[in-house]
Amino acid sequence: MKTIRFISPGLWLLVFTLLLGACGGGGGGGSKPAASSVPPSSAPASVASSSSLSSSVAASVVSSQALSSQAASSVNNTITTVTIRYKRSAEDYTGWGLHLWGSAIATSTATTWAAPHPFDAIENGWAVASVPVTNPAVAFNLITHKGDFKSPTADLSFVPNVNGANVWVVQDNNNLFFNEAEANAAAALIGNASGALDLSPVAPMTVDSELPDGWNKRANFMQIFVRSYQDSDGDGRGDFQGLISRLDYLQALGVTGIWLMPMMESSDNDHGYSVIDYRKVESDYGTMEDFETLLSEAHARGIGVIIDYVMNHSSSSNPLFIDASSTATNSKRDWYIFSSSNPGWTSWGGNASWHSAANSFYYGVFTSSLPDFNLRNNSVVAYHMDNLRFWLNKGVDGFRFDATGVLFENGINAWSDQTENHALLAEAQAVINSYDNRYMICEAPDAPALYAVDTSCINSFAFGYQGAIKSTATNRSLNSSLATLLNSATKATMPLILSNHDSFAGNRPIGELSGNNLGDYRVAAAITTLVSSTPFAYYGEEIGMANGNQNDDGKLRTPMSWTANTTNAGFTTATPYRSLSTNVSTRNVAAQNGVAGSLLEHYRALYAVRNAVPLLGNGNLSLQSAAGNSHVIFTRSGEGKVAAVLINLSLAAQNLTVNTGLNNTAFVQKLPAGDAPFTSNGAGAISLSVPAQTAVVLMSQ
């Protein structure tokens, strides 16, 4: 949670103009503070502010240290009482109060979360409270809340000696006001925060793909977290220009597609899944012009760019939700899901999925800071489809859709993988397919095969098979569940993954696949890359990056290890915003680039053969191995051609045989590189010795 200080008088209009271009705001979830001595940074999160500050305005916000320093030399210590005025549009203050803490007040005045300081009176529609002050030269801290619902959501703070004895607080606005006229102007805007968003319809444009035809059927994808990839401006955070500077690396590696984790303006200032403006780029990453340059530079290198799209929910700081939660009669109320009482549903791990608002409850399957959209509302769906066209018109090459398993909910035990999900995704697919050569894939961890069909999302990550791939590599025996997938009707549209940005998908694989001098890792990489029509790797996977030291998902999202520098990993010239991977000193790009036998060069060889043999992406896969075999053998065929893949899982060389289906036909070896000749016999078979933990690819001539 951020602590919002104050904005100097006269800046409010500038703040409102920029409020939606900002990132920040929003609160974090957690338990209530138990005592007045505990700052409320762990107090429950709820509806977030409509006025998170942009960097230009944030420069006018004075830090607590600076405030205290100013106050120390202030002209007077005569302020003994602070008067706080609070405005809600409904002017119903029943149950509302102030949580107070800090050295500006006596211990007896400080409150607990369960027993807030009450308002004394209502004057001209404002709730008023007078609070005694013992030290006006230090920060006075407050939160306005009703039970667990906070509005605004920030930890508010000011110094009486600097700002005066009168302060105004406005519903859903994380700024304090010290001028009645400006406070009244802000109050007049309650319920219309979304007026600053671009909600206009977006007409489709003819935007021809700059990529080779069929790119979307065989691309080699790298998942990239922009914030952790490369910093270009020395602020310790990755950005678009930093990623642009690394496109040559990706091209040389053989990557032909990148999936960008959320790059729209967000309130979390981290992963980006808390979207506050669907038509602006994350300001931490740069400008729209920077993003457009990224598209152009990637396309010039034959690399497509797909972006994350979050249709299930928004940030509670999104102005649409700010308006929806402001009053039951707001025009945006039905854009989200509200109930007058608490239905009492829970989601994963028994976590509550309904959260308290002022006089109602709203649905957020993940957390209170991520309220779910009402996707039964045609206006909401139309808005999302327009957003897709907005980015497609700019030239993006497709989308990865987040959390598609929970788009619709039908009851306490019917909130996951509902049938309505597929019709909505098919509608999104129609929008995407109206543009040339685009790609669509979904995150649906509980039932991925249901989404990997033409009547839903087309492609869906093969969640649940990460362990099967690792087991196949480490036990040197084809896992039965992996064999079942490779014989299924959706095998071509369910890309395998070893890991991604979420802990539920597992840790970075180096911890489990370091055996046999990384032979286990090479086998797992070969299976994932050669079996999948459109394989995905997570950034740093190609060098064996390890987790960071964080306890949360941050451990999977550490800065990219470009060099062995244990201070900045070549990621930035400053201090990285997050600590580095624990094996940065040994597993980094500089240490492996061009080094024969390195993991990086193994990935380069896998991508090279896929790029040289398109049939490995778009051919029909036929598995010839069975569960329990010490090999994975399959063919991909199409238009009279055959590519044969033989992966030896064992620790010793094996004589393996593949049935190519082409009798007496010349083949050449494409992996390992060298074009060694082979000829199938009269029954179409080729037998050869395959070294331990090695993949061989043969291509018919």
TrEMBL record:
SMART domains: Aamy. Signal peptide: none annotated. The keyword DNA-binding does not apply. Residues 223-578 form the Glycosyl hydrolase family 13 catalytic domain. The keyword Zinc does not apply. Keywords: Glycosidase, Hydrolase, Signal. CDD domains: AmyAc_bac2_AmyA (cd11316), CBM41_pullulanase (cd10315). Transmembrane segments: none annotated. One of its GO terms (molecular function) is hydrolase activity. It holds the Pfam family PUD. Belongs to the glycosyl hydrolase 13 family. This is Alpha-amylase family glycosyl hydrolase.
